[in-house]
């Protein structure tokens, strides 16, 4: 009734979301912010001008969901205007500049929050200073980092046993015996662990996953070993129902929705391999060449996303394609066997098409949980960060994917690498999933089942839906308690 609604509005929480400036952090946290707004809480996302512009086209802004912008310090760090996301980095030097600029956002954000204090702040863990700010204002803080809880459990266990740079080891103390074949770089682990320490001081962590995929055993393990609360509210991407909503997630796609859909519509069910390595990863040409050879040799249809941001704008047409074997485009693209998307692809829209058969992924958590939500099995190719742990969850624990055999754990996704994954390994992994056979059928069946579980979790009565109700109730209790004091 009208009265109930008014009462609901009156009691609504004012929540600020501060997403980090990288698609893998921004996209899921803004979808989660939208979930809170759909429950009629008063949500404000704090970000910078060019991110605000992208978001304005991607999320449903209204009286419950607003954006507050703070200036991006381009000039202070020597970046051109409009470069406001880690995904724009083309080399290590401008990656560092963009990172540095994000640390300079503290004063203007802090100023705004102090002038207009909310009931709660949800911030990315890459803004650890929010801890002090929330304490000062005596408001609850939830943290977010875009990781699976499984990966956080693995990171914590590796830390507790100092297992850095050992080539192969079993992660101790986890509910499953997880054997690693690559060593986490010490520098990365140090950074992540310091940031996680601040996460554990928050009132809880929001996880873009559903509890069935991380598994109750890992949620229990996390809560027991860290004493910290985890809220599984995902998969965030499932908030997007229509083709348009899926296509407009993140940045502006370089292909038209119509073109992409009609290409997919013309293909049989489960026949297309989708290849994408997220928003940050840049492979050297020789690796791209091996991928091209591997997928061509597999004989399967494909959509391959290759970032168009090599930073060499004066590159000639010939140089641009030098990572493709001779005649590749004539043989494959011409025959409608494959599509190469050079730049941002409408990933969630592609993954949810029935023509999709498998996803070759770098195991970034968003890509992983998006594939799971769509019931698509994976070919795992982790590159950096916590991706090697995600691979284990997908292939060893839940058995919804096969490995390509990547063993080089880099510090970033950018730049030269020592090892190349060869065309034979790529062909073999693609065939293992897409040629059919008992093993492939089983993996596909499990993947479909997890897709159903993901959708169920996000629906009314499902685990994530219930968790969202619970976290809102909890925050209201904290606020009301404070009001009474
Ligand atoms: N993404 C997309 N189109 C692209 C590349 C990436 O829509 O061409 C989206 C993808 O759906 C995911 C996010 O960008 O939501 C990437 O996050 P992920 O955690 O997978 O990897 P990261 O980019 O952080 O390495």
From TrEMBL:
One of its GO terms (molecular function) is UDP-glucosyltransferase activity. It comes from the Eukaryota. CDD domains: GT1_Gtf-like. Its EC number is 2.4.1.-. It is an enzyme of class 2 (transferase). Keywords: Glycosyltransferase, Transferase. It holds the Pfam family UDPGT. Belongs to the UDP-glycosyltransferase family. This is Glycosyltransferase. The gene is 25481187.
């Amino acid at each position: 009734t009208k009265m109930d609604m008014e009462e609901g509005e009156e009691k609504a929480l004012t929540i600020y979301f501060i997403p980090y400036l990288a698609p893998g952090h921004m996209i899921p946290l803004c979808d989660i912010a939208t979930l809170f707004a759909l429950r009629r809480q008063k949500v404000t996302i704090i970000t910078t001008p060019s991110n605000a512009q992208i978001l304005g086209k991607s999320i449903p802004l209204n009286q419950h969901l607003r954006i507050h912008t703070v200036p991006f310090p381009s000039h202070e760090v020597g970046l051109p205007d409009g470069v406001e996301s880690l995904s724009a980095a083309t080399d290590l030097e401008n990656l560092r500049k963009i990172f540095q600029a994000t640390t300079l956002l503290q004063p203007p954000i802090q100023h705004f929050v102090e002038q207009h204090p909310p009931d709660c702040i949800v911030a990315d863990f890459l803004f650890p200073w929010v801890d002090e700010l929330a304490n000062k204002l005596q408001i609850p803080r939830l943290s977010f980092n875009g990781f699976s809880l499984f990966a956080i459990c693995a990171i914590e266990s590796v830390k507790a046993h100092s297992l850095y740079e050992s080539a192969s080891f079993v992660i101790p103390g986890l509910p499953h015996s997880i054997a690693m074949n690559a060593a986490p770089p010490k520098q990365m682990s140090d950074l992540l662990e310091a940031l996680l320490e601040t996460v554990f001081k928050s009132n809880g962590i929001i996880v873009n996953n559903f509890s069935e995929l991380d598994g109750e055993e890992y949620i229990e393990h996390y809560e027991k070993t860290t004493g910290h609360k985890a809220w599984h509210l995902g998969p965030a991407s499932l908030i997007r129902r229509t083709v348009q909503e899926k296509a407009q997630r993140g940045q502006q796609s370089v292909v038209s929705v119509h073109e992409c859909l009609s290409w997919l519509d013309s293909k049989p069910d489960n026949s297309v391999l989708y290849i994408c390595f997220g928003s940050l990863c840049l492979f050297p040409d020789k690796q791209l060449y091996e991928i091209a050879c591997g997928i061509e040799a597999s004989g399967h249809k494909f959509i391959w996303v290759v970032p168009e941001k090599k930073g060499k704008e004066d590159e000639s047409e010939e140089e641009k394609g030098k990572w493709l074997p001779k005649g590749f485009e004539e043989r494959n693209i011409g025959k409608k066997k494959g599509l190469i998307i050079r730049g941002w692809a409408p990933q969630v829209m592609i993954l949810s098409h029935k023509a999709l058969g498998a996803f070759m992924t770098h195991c970034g958590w968003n890509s992983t949980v998006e594939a799971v939500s769509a019931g698509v099995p994976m070919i795992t190719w982790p590159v950096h960060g916590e991706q090697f742990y995600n691979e284990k969850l997908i292939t060893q624990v839940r058995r919804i994917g096969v490995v390509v055999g990547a063993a080089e754990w880099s510090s970033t996704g950018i730049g030269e690498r020592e090892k190349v994954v060869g065309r034979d390994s790529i062909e073999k992994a693609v065939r293992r999933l897409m040629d059919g056979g008992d093993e492939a059928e089983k993996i596909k069946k499990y993947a479909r089942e997890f897709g159903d579980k993901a959708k169920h979790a996000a629906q009314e009565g499902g685990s994530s839906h219930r968790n969202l109700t619970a976290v809102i109730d909890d925050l209201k209790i904290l606020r009301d308690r404070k009001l009474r004091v």
